[in-house]
Amino acid sequence: GAVVSQHPSRVICKSGTSVKIECRSLDFQATTMFWYRQFPKQSLMLMATSNEGSKATYEQGVEKDKFLINHASLTLSTLTVTSAHPEDSSFYICSAREAGGNEKLFFGSGTQLSVL
Amino acid sequence: AQTVTQSQPEMSVQEAETVTLSCTYDTSESDYYLFWYKQPPSRQMILVIRQEAYKQQNATENRFSVNFQKAAKSFSLKISDSQLGDAAMYFCAYSPRGNYQLIWGAGTKLIIKP
After folding, report:
1. Across residues B28-55, what is the average pLDDT?
2. Which end of chain A is more exposed for a tag (fewer CB within 10 A), N or C?
């Protein structure tokens, strides 16, 4: 099956620094990628939808200047958490839709962000 | 608004037995997809099974099967011959056809007793 590589799997950073998370589709072209945030013992919360070559669409309540999303190619999307604070600590997951695919999404393995 | 409800925060089952996880949803769409995803302790989201709303036949994947009741907007997951490796969080999800944004249920934690 299709593989989505997400890294880093875990990152610890100091408050005020920026962290970049990468999401790559390894064996398919992803026209659309989704970024989720998951709090402990909760469901996934959609943060934004990114389409290759265009600006991301953010869900209500998600600060676009805080969570910068870039989808510059059909195989790579990045999420940058800028000026991270402890409340940004969370598990972040990406998923990708295959171009011409049939409603199947493929998920990355997630990134646990801890901001000290 | 489209919503997905999983009313069982936690379920437990004896190994080798059968368990059913419940999911209901609300939508005014007629064409959509329903999914069950498994999230083990590794936190990798794994697709268990997918159902297309226009197909009356219930989807089956080995030991996993669904009971899709479109009129009742119900989509339960049955796991037969439960195995220790089935222990995980199970999420029910919905998406209208052509819209890949999943709407998620709150999840059910499945515990397998050896």
Report:
1. 93
2. N
